[in-house]
Write a structure and sequence with these properties.
This protein is an alpha/beta fold and 366 residues long. 38% of the residues lie in helices and 21% in strands.
Amino acid sequence: MPVKGKTSSKIILVMMSIIFTLIFAEIILRYYYFGKLSIVNTNADRLKFYREDEKLGWSPIPKSEGHFSNPRQGLNAYIKHNANGIRVNDNSFESRGKSILIVGDSVTAGFEVDNNETYSAILEKLFFENGCNYRVYNAGVSGYGTDQSLWNLERLLSIVRPDYVIYMFTSNDFVDNRRIKKANTKWGKPTFVLSKGELILKNGPSRKFEISYFAYVNYADEGYEITEGYINEPLRMTMQFIKDNLALFYPLKTIYSFLQISQESRMEKQAVYEDFKILELILKKMKRPEVELYFTSYPSEDLKVYVKDFRRIADKLNISYLNIYPYFPGQLEKYHWKKDTHWNEKGHHQAATALYDLLKPRLCKQ
């Protein structure tokens, strides 16, 4: 009996040691990554601005407004959409002159900064301050791929009647263009698949899914297949809790990513032929005779190697690629929120300056 008691005591001591070690590590990591103890992530705030949409997967709620908060970053940005689901710039300029419609994902939506600090708002301000009047519309929506940006553009063409359109491509758009539904997310979406050189729509209109369900399009020599399934619910909830609430997530990020990828998809991290072909065909659909299309890409190490490919696609389609990379010198992290790839105020200012410098010779001819 005494032996069993000693064994139980040792097990309890080991477990307590592990628990206290994890708590200590969590405290240290919170200060290391964020400089403060309280870092609960409230990215769920995004959902209060969006609603389910059969055509687009999800879309902005008209006239929705409020604050998007993330204590990890210390941000509390004010967000407002107009009646058409376009984010308001909060500039006080008179509505005159021609217009530019910008489509893209969360980088363009810019929920991390106030209305007047997004690159679309600053770009509009630069045009007006330099005597070149362009109304700039921010139609960015968090989580959108190139496909959803196309459908959003089609929705807004008759409403905004833009003279020019800018599409901002970001590093996760290749994956988003293959995704039907990501586990841990509320909504799925329609998705194009590439078959015999043509785009075929799958899951359109989008149906309802359970939150743990995932589905992706994968390509092989013989064509495409849809990989789908469900993440184990206790595992999903544990992973989501760690991701949203613990700084331990960052050193464990590789394990987290492995679990996600192994259970959700076998997609290669590097873009393949199909990814570029899908991008090309969707951009071709974005072209309209009544508007001029510009294509640009978010400066990241992931996409830097693809600038030549973007130029090749743009030249083939006879559209303009705006290379804003040279306007982001030094470490790209200084333009982002800490441990986040979204632009901070400096990043949005750099993007607006880059687009203004590149567009001014084309759009502001005296």
